[in-house]
Amino acid sequence: MGGERTGLRRLIVLYTDGSALGNPGPGGFAAILTYEGQEKALVGAYRYTTNNRMELMAIIAGLEAIKRPDLPIEVVSDSRYVIDAIVKNWVFGWERKQFAGKANADLWQRYLKIHRSLNIRFRWIRGHNGHPYNERCDRLAVQAAQQGPHSIDLGYERDHPVPGGH
Asked: Does 128 qualify as catalytic in the annotation?
C-alpha cells in the first residue's frame, strides 16, 4: 500500500467509490488502500442496491481491511452523502435516535463500530475530475456492478424486493 507521511508519522490513505446501475440496481464498490509505496484494491458487487450504500460500503470494506489501526487514516471520497454525514456529525445524532427513519442504518451501524477504533480524517474530492485514484475506483466500481459476481445486499433487499423477483 502506497503511502504518504504526515510530518514524521505514516499515513494510510483510502480512496473509495461506489456505483449502482439504475440506482437502485446492480451495484459495485471499490476501495484502494495506499501505504508506504504499496497499494491494495478491494472490490465488491451486489445484485440490487443503491449508490449511497455502495459509497458507504467502499469505506467500510477499506477500513475493515486495515491491518495497522494504530496509524492515522485519510479517507478520500467523492460522496457528499457519506462525508457530510460523518464530518458534520449527523450520523452520531442518527445513532442517538437509533437511526429511526434513516436509510442505510445497517451500514451506518457497521461503520460506527470501525470508526471508534481508528484515527480517521475525511477529504471530499469532486468526482470525475481527473483524480487518478478516484477515476480508478470509479472504473472498478462500475465494472464490479456490471460483471459481478453479485452478492445479495440483505440490508437493502429486506425492505426493497428485487424487481422481477430474482
From this structure: yes
Backbone angles phi, psi at 67, to 5 degrees: -95, -10
Is 106 catalytic? The answer is no
Q: Are strands 4-6 and 38-49 parallel, antiparallel or unpaired?
A: unpaired
* pLDDT tops 60 at residue 37: yes
Q: Kindly report, residue by residue over 121-165, the tens digit of the pLDDT.
A: 999 999 989 999 999 999 999 999 999 999 999 999 999 999 887
Domain boundaries, the chain: 4-165
Residues 6+ apart with CB under 8 A from 26: 20, 45, 46, 47, 48, 49, 145, 146, 148, 150
Q: Is the pLDDT of residue 108 over 80?
A: yes
**Among this protein's residues, is 164 annotated catalytic?**
no
| 7 band by pLDDT with thresholds 50, 70 and 90 | low
Q: Give which of 64, 59, 50 is closest to 78, Cα–Cα.
A: 59
Give phi and psi for 24, each to the nearest 5.
-85, 160
Please pick, among 17, 27, 28, 153, the residue that the annotation labels catalytic.
Answer: 17
- 17 as an active site residue: the answer is yes
Classify 4-165 by CATH class: alpha beta
